[in-house]
Write a structure and sequence with these properties.
This protein has 31 helices and 27 strands. The relative contact order is 0.11. With 934 residues, the chain is of the alpha/beta class. Helices cover 39% and strands 14% of the residues. The structure holds adenosine-5'-triphosphate, pantothenoic acid and manganese (II) ion (MN). The site of pantothenoic acid has 12 residues, from strand 11 and strand 12.
Length: 934
């Protein structure tokens, strides 16, 4: 699995230049329409006139994603939440051989999918996207809806399914003018323009307009109701949604669902609404204030002539409010007013200093004015919120609305106010989807999807791939497809700009007692609107994911072993991923035939991935709590985003083949051993074969030194006991009894073993399959648990049946068990199969629900969850699944954790050892709890 022990000097140099280029931290704002070089030109058409500087190009065959949506039309911003079902990959150039292979894989995955349960959810699984527009740019919003054809599928998911990628939907040219960008489309292919859930004042104000332009009717939902149901959904279903922000420090809050209510929801939009929420569906708007986001933006605009909200926030970075604010010290001759607890630096009166000074507006620095204004409004809202919380005895206050914009100073100011006035009794919390509560609530009111019932394990927050390259500005026409994404990356390359995703502002200083020092300014480092998109990401809804039932303590389970909130740890792993990037890109491009198209995508992938790394370096919590597993998954997701389906396919095939040729000899060798020696040989074999890990730089360098088989032999020969962690005896005792003599006492074999496999090639063929065979021989049913999607050279569930079939040619046990398990459907031989198949323990394959080298047991496939219920042994193999994640996890059944450490730092830190050390950690059922009981 994935890492490396060293990063070359060249890579390091590039890394630091990318990551420290403060001046280049902001991507240029995108023009509202762009000319896009095309990948899939079929059916393409130029929208608008050809003389247009930036005509819109419509790519009907690349917009296979069809969606459903809800809208919140507010006083300042329009928010859209739309759904797209599990993505149909847009076509990229594939050879016939590749497409045949894909068909075969699809057939196989159909077999796996046949095992899926959908838990009774009417939704199929898909993604929730979040988009916003300025209310004054309604036409952009209309154009967006048309380009995505959101208005055409109001029949819902069932209707969505029936739709094909038809050649319609010109993405209207964006403009700020009042002219109509679109006209109502006639019905086509049975699609209907229908009824859309809408909330916010604009649901009333613009109902006629939407009817006229898009032919849709609004089904109005109450704004407060939507805010509350949106908030409840986020707090229940999205992990790492709520956080505190105090003195520059952001911390995610684990909310206990039983202790969530009552709370105060303070939505700061143009105006502010304060809602007491008592329980699901029960709430009351207890207060509001007209001093809100609109006030800040409006006054700020008047006073500074700034053109955008972000510009104002950015200005405030360099401000010193004491230039306009009257401080206690100004009144008290530099002294504190300590009798009532006010320090000299406390603001006595916002803007009060101006009175005595005979100056014009232009005599003041804009920065100072804006900071004073921001502080005044934030603090005031905090204070009113506190008073209402006090009025109803509420301890938890959640702030939402786009006024917040993830802006550290704003959040700190409000948190400070709450903490100060409540004397620490009440807590201010913020939501990552801050401004989308209303739209989300409206979306959830399409209750037929059962979305409102989703819980956290069914919502996976993926890294929002579109985000780093959309640039600034509130979204105009968005990135619609792969091709546009690539075009963006190329634009940056042409300009020689490294996109390091927008960086959040720096920490403000506070001076206690309500006085604030000015925030530490940092040049041009405000997060732009695209980073707000970065923060919310895309929610993947997967109704087939479930918590793994054998976790001993699901509530406190933490998959990651390495804590990346530690700065040096984070820096190290970010560097490793950065250093491995050039190689990975080469492999990725080669895996897609090395064509120009592949090269383009490869370069774009590298840019995008670097942007994410840079972003995380600046704000580690940008995507929620960050662990190594997330980083590794992000890389895989990012590859998929640029349609690299399986980078290591060729390597995996080559290594499978090579390993299969020596399998018969290995099996014969194993069979010649006594049971005790055989068991040791099997375990050592698994560990030795775990060296084939293309995610480890050190190992990849090793592969130049010999053939696969030579390296495997070398690895086995080097194996020395005791291993770095060596519980082999304990395992052996459980397995073959004390003394190692089979038959010396009656042993009950395990009923069902889950073998979590890691790499393709020798690892699975020479390591895990022989172990599976041994278990089967002892009467244990074996389930091979493998990835649902490719990650590095990890074997996938779809690939396993063919590997097992090939191995079964050399082994009767495997053949019978695999046949009994339905794996050998098309390899039925005519010898020996007439025997009683029911008596043979079964060998099956199950997908784990992941596309990453690690495994997060909070979210596994439902098949795995079901089959795990009767398992009494787990074997977690490989660094990703047994060390990076789950090394400290406890389970309700016996667990064997087997891995070779292929990273020096991890070896030192986790095991006090060195690279290539091995771990054989055996933990009997409820190992942790019995330890506690003692
Ligand atoms: N790019 C932006 N453009 C305009 N305002 C922004 C932007 N980003 C943040 N804001 C702030 O967010 C506020 C709007 O927040 P939000 O979208 O939650 O409210 P709204 O729904 O438009 O208003 P209301 O609910 O009162 O009708 C603005 O008044 C402004 O203070
Ligand atoms: C009018 C709404 C509800 C529109 O979203 C909002 O802007 C608001 O709550 N304004 C504050 C009005 C008040 O309670 O004084
Ligand atoms: Mn609103």
């Amino acid at each position: 699995m994935a890492d490396s022990s060293s990063v070359g000097p060249a890579a390091q140099e590039e890394w630091s230049s990318v990551l420290s280029a403060e001046a280049a931290t902001r991507a240029p704002p995108p023009p509202t329409t762009i000319t896009r070089p095309l990948l899939d030109l079929s059916g393409a058409a130029i929208g608008g006139s050809k003389e247009d500087h930036n005509p819109t190009i419509v790519l009907p065959n690349q917009s296979a994603e069809v969606s459903h949506f809800a809208i919140d039309l507010g006083g300042s911003l329009i928010k859209l939440v739309y759904f797209s079902r599990a993505q149909q990959e847009a076509k990229t150039t594939t050879t016939e051989a590749e497409s045949n292979k894909k068909k075969l894989e699809q057939k196989r995955s159909g077999f796996l999918a046949g095992l899926r349960r959908h838990g009774g959810f009417p939704i199929l699984g898909g993604r929730l996207h979040f988009v916003k527009f300025e209310s004054s740019k309604l036409n952009d919003c209309l154009a967006f809806i048309k380009s995505k054809r959101l208005h055409r599928c109001s029949k819902g998911i069932e209707g969505v399914e029936a739709l094909g990628p038809t050649a319609t939907a010109a993405a209207g040219k964006s403009s700020n003018s009042g002219s109509s960008p679109t006209t109502t489309m006639p019905e086509k292919n049975g699609e209907k323009n229908g009824v859309i859930k809408a909330t916010g004042g604009g649901a009333f104000k613009y109902a006629e307009l939407f009817k006229e332009k898009l032919g849709v009717t609004f089904d109005k939902e109450d704004e407060m109701q939507c805010l509350v149901s949106g908030a409840n959904f986020l707090l229940r279903a999205i992990r790492d949604e709520a956080f505190t922000h105090l003195e520059g420090h952001k911390q995610f809050v684990q909310l206990d669902q039983n202790e969530l209510f009552p709370y105060l929801l303070v939505n700061i939009g143009s105006g502010v609404s304060m809602i007491k929420v008592d329980e699901e569906g029960q709430y009351e708007r207890v207060s509001g204030t007209n001093v809100g986001g609109g006030t800040f933006w409006g006054l700020g605009k008047l006073l500074t002539k700034c053109k955008s909200f972000d510009e104002i926030l950015e200005l405030s970075q360099g401000g010193d409010n004491s230039a306009v604010d009257m401080l206690v010290g100004d009144i008290y001759g530099g002294l504190d007013y300590s009798k009532i607890g006010l320090s000299a630096s406390t603001i006595a009166s916002s803007f009060g200093k101006v009175i005595a000074e005979n100056k014009d507006l232009s005599d003041y620095r804009k920065e100072d004015i804006v900071l004073s204004l921001l502080r005044m409004i934030s603090y005031n809202i905090g204070q009113v919120a506190y008073l209402n919380a006090l009025r109803y005895g509420l301890k938890r206050i959640f702030f939402s609305g786009f006024f917040i914009r993830g802006h550290a100073y704003t959040m700190d100011t409000m948190s400070f106010a709450i903490r100060f006035w409540s004397k620490g009794d009440a807590q201010a919390m913020f939501l990552r989807h801050e401004g989308f509560l209303g739209a989300l609530g409206a979306f959830l009111s399409y209750d037929k999807y059962g979305l409102a019932n989703l819980t956290s394990h069914q919502c996976v927050e993926r890294f929002p791939m579109g985000a780093p390259y959309v640039g600034g500005e509130v979204h105009g026409p968005p990135i619609r497809d792969l091709n546009e994404k690539i075009t963006w990356m190329e634009k940056f390359m042409q300009k020689g700009i490294e996109i390091t995703a927008p960086i959040p502002i720096s920490l403000p200083g506070t001076t206690g007692l309500g006085g604030f020092e000015r925030p530490l300014a940092r040049s041009g480092s405000l997060r732009s609107d695209s980073s707000a998109a970065l923060n919310v990401g895309v929610l993947h809804l997967d109704p087939s994911l479930e918590p793994f039932p054998l976790l001993a303590d699901p509530k406190n389970y933490e998959p990651n072993t390495v804590d990346l909130s530690d700065q040096s740890e984070r820096e190290y792993w970010l560097r490793i991923l950065f250093g491995n990037l050039p190689d990975l890109v080469e492999k990725a491009v080669a895996s897609e035939g090395g064509t120009d198209d592949a090269r383009r995508r490869g370069d774009a992938f590298a840019r995008a991935f670097k942007a994410h790394l840079a972003r995380l370096r600046e704000e580690p919590a940008a995507y929620g709590k960050l662990g190594l597993a997330n980083l590794l998954e992000m890389r895989e997701e990012c590859l998929r985003e640029f349609h690299f389906h399986d980078v290591y396919m060729a390597i995996k095939e080559r290594e499978n083949e090579a390993a299969l040729t020596v399998l018969p000899d290995l099996l014969a060798e194993l069979d010649s051993l006594e049971p005790a020696a055989r068991m040791l040989a099997l375990i050592e074999g698994v560990l030795a074969a775990n060296i084939f890990d293309w995610g480890s730089r050190a190992c990849v360098e090793l592969y130049h030194s010999g053939t696969i088989i030579e390296i495997y032999r070398m690895s086995r020969n080097k194996m020395k006991r005791p291993l770095r962690v060596d519980n082999f005896e304990a395992f052996q005792k459980k397995f073959i009894g004390s003394g190692g003599n089979e038959g010396s006492e009656k042993l009950v074999p395990h009923k069902r073993a889950l073998l979590f496999v890691d790499n393709s090639g020798a690892d699975v063929v020479l390591g895990m399959l022989p172990l599976a065979r041994e278990l089967l021989r002892r009467g244990t049913e074996v389930v091979l648990v493998a990835n649902s999607l490719p990650a590095i050279n990890d074997v996938t569930a779809v690939e396993l049946p063919a590997i097992v079939a090939a191995a079964a040619k050399h082994c009767d046990t495997l053949r019978r068990a695999a046949t009994a398990g339905g794996l050998l459907v098309d390899v039925v031989g005519d010898d020996g199969l007439s025997e009683d198949v029911a008596a043979v323990p079964v060998l099956t394959v199950v997908e784990n629900g992941c596309g990453s080298p690690c495994i997060d047991f909070r979210q596994v496939s439902s098949e795995l969850a079901v089959i795990a219920q009767d398992a009494d042994l787990m074997v977690l193999e490989g660094m990703g699944r047994a060390l990076h994640t789950n090394y400290n996890a406890r389970f309700q059944c016996d667990v064997l954790k087997l891995a070779m450490v292929k990273n020096q730092r991890l070896a030192e830190q986790l095991l006090n050892g060195s690279i290539y050390d091995c771990v054989c950690r055996y933990e009997p059922a409820n190992y942790g709890s019995s330890a506690l009981a003692n």
